[in-house]
Design a protein that fits this description.
- With 489 residues, this protein is an alpha/beta fold.
- It folds into two domains: 275 residues, Aldehyde Dehydrogenase, Chain A, domain 1 (3-Layer(aba) Sandwich); 183 residues, Aldehyde Dehydrogenase, Chain A, domain 2 (3-Layer(aba) Sandwich), CATH 3.40.309.
- It has 17 helices and 23 strands.
- The strands form six sheets. It has a seven-stranded mixed beta sheet, with helices on both faces.
- Helix 1 runs parallel beside helix 9, helix 4 packs antiparallel against helix 8 and helix 6 packs parallel to helix 7.
- The chain is globular.
- The protein binds ligand TXE.
- Ligand TXE binds next to helix 9 and helix 10.
């Protein structure tokens, strides 16, 4: 059993209340680690450490280029410790190792290098006021203490998408990972010790949303909150932050549609639709969990889709031959099975999967790739985020009908379109209400390209220049060289 401490003020600390909670390996269902159950006293330690780093320590006075060099060193630290980080992420939340290393880890490294290069390029502007005696210019300044709250499905990626730009912009960060997968974020702190950043610049406290997340979000020295999680969690956090008018970035849930037209290439689109939900067992915010098929391709597509989905190999997330790993925690495993049970009773047709399985008798939490057809667009199955390997299939006749069904949702994170008619593809990309639209591909992303939601999928952006913008605030400075100021009255 591994027992962790939490990391604040450049030190490893025991939780003030002396309590811990356990973390289970989703592949075996067995407890493997104890995680600090922090409380508001630990929050106070972390916030004061971050505040000192921003206002008194070397970080506050550091030249941006030097800050960029330090952020780059964080990327070097991830590269050095990539194997250990991947081991712990797979052990703690069941993410397939092949999805973490080398692919994800090189992306995580790139994030630090990309934003390190931006640290000394946050240029302001000189405003043309048209008056010689007035100089007006702008500066982009950090918020100071940033609270970064993350979800359990991809802890390292979600944490680094916040850390890299926030630090490059000159903020200090307090990470609060999900209670369902905290260990890899703590391991990231161990890796960062090699980068030798000033104390308090990066901190990680662990624990439950209400016990730790709320004191963190409402603390008066926290000036920016970046949240990744469910709509319910996000709405709660945004509401708390609103009490003290904090800037908030929200990366929330989705129920993303994939639209397939009669002229789509059959095999490619089947592979793209399957690949857009099943490999992470549906545990991706941008999972394409609704499938809209034009009537002409419907039968051929569903037949091929089931054939491919049934080929998937469920098993050990450390085994490169595994196609689909476990559900990340027991509570979510039971939540997804509940959705499937309700869908069975909803009148939809269970065309594939639908069962919990126990590959290799390992004892973990696995659900088969599951496909429901004849799904009513207004049903819970078509409207609620399941965040599991469950695909809801609907039929449409015309483009307008496809757009109407696709946009008829509270979410707006991503969407996919499969057609050989590029005029149609571009026209529909403009009409779909989603922060990311894929045309004849799905799930692509890179550090340079902004990610974020429309409607209840959130607001603000991560990655790219916009990802940096969310961590600075603009100041306008006016200098008067006028000889005198006339009396106002
Ligand atoms: O979310 P939760 P989960 C979404 C995904 C799914 C959800 C799953 O779509 O909906 O995340 O992650 C903390 N005050 N995304 O179940 O429960 C909680 O402790 C303060 C979208 O973890 O909302 C955890 O650390 N904190 C994303 C974090 O919030 C609170 C990509 C998230 O918990 C809190 C990945 C409270 N009241 C998953 N309640 C994207 N769009 O990029 C919860 N927390």
């Amino acid at each position: 059993m591994e027992t962790y401490a939490y990391y604040a003020d450049g030190r490893w600390l025991e939780p003030a209340g002396g309590e811990y909670f356990t973390s289970e390996n989703p592949y075996t269902g067995k407890t493997w680690a104890q995680i600090p159950r922090c409380n508001d006293r630990d929050v106070e330690i972390a916030v004061q450490a971050a505040y000192r780093a921003c206002h008194e320590g070397p970080w506050a006075r550091m030249h941006p280029a030097e800050r960029g060099t330090m952020v780059r060193r964080l990327g070097d630290a991830v590269a050095l410790h990539a194997d250990r980080l991947a081991d712990i992420e797979t052990r703690d939340n069941g993410k397939r190792r092949v999805d973490i290393h080398p692919g994800l880890s090189s992306w995580l490294i790139d994030s630090f290098y990309y934003y390190a290069g931006m640290a000394d390029k946050l240029e302001g502007s000189v405003i043309p006021t048209g008056r010689d005696e007035i100089l007006n210019y702008t500066r982009h300044e950090p918020y100071g203490v940033v609270a970064a709250i993350t979800a359990w499905n991809s802890p390292l990626l979600i944490a680094i998408w916040k850390l890299a730009p926030a630090l490059a912009a000159g903020n200090a960060v307090i990470l609060k990972p999900s209670e369902f997968a905290s260990a890899s974020t703590l391991e990231l702190m161990k890796a960062f010790e090699d980068a030798d950043l000033p104390s308090g610049v990066i901190n990680t406290i662990t624990g439950f949303g209400a016990e730790v997340g709320e004191p963190l979000v409402t603390h008066d020295r926290v000036r920016k909150v970046s949240f990744t999680g469910s709509v319910k969690g996000g709405a709660s956090v945004a509401g708390l932050a609103a009490r003290s008018v904090k800037s908030v970035t929200m990366e929330l849930g989705g129920k993303s549609p994939q639209l397939v037209f009669d002229d789509a290439r059959l095999e490619d689109s089947v592979h793209g639709v399957c690949g857009g939900i099943f490999p992470p067992a549906g545990q991706s915010c941008i999972a394409g969990s609704r499938l809209l098929l034009q009537a002409g391709i419907y039968d051929a597509f569903v037949g091929k889709l089931i054939e491919v989905a049934q080929r998937a190999r469920l098993g050990d997330p450390n085994d490169p031959a595994t196609n689909i790993g476990p559900i990340a925690n027991k509570i979510h495993f039971e939540r997804v099975l509940g959705h499937i049970e309700r869908a069975r009773k909803s009148g939809a047709t269970l065309a594939c999967g639908g069962n919990a399985v126990n590959p290799g008798g390992a004892g973990g939490w696995f659900i088969e790739p599951t496909i429901f057809t004849n799904v009513a667009p207004d049903s819970a199955l078509a409207r609620e985020e399941i965040f599991g390997p469950v695909l809801a299939v609907m039929r449409f006749e015309t483009e307008d009908e496809a757009v109407q069904i696709a946009n008829d949702t509270d979410f707006g994170l991503a969407a996919g379109i499969w057609t050989e008619d590029h005029r149609r593809a571009l026209n529909l990309a403009n009409r779909l209400e989603a922060g990311t639209v894929y045309l004849n591909n799905y799930f692509d992303a890179c550090t340079q390209s902004p990610v974020g939601g429309y409607k209840q999928s959130g607001y603000g952006r991560e990655n790219g220049w916009e990802g940096m913008r969310d961590f600075v605030q603009t100041k306008s400075v006016w200098l008067s060289t006028a000889r005198r100021i006339e009396a106002p009255f």
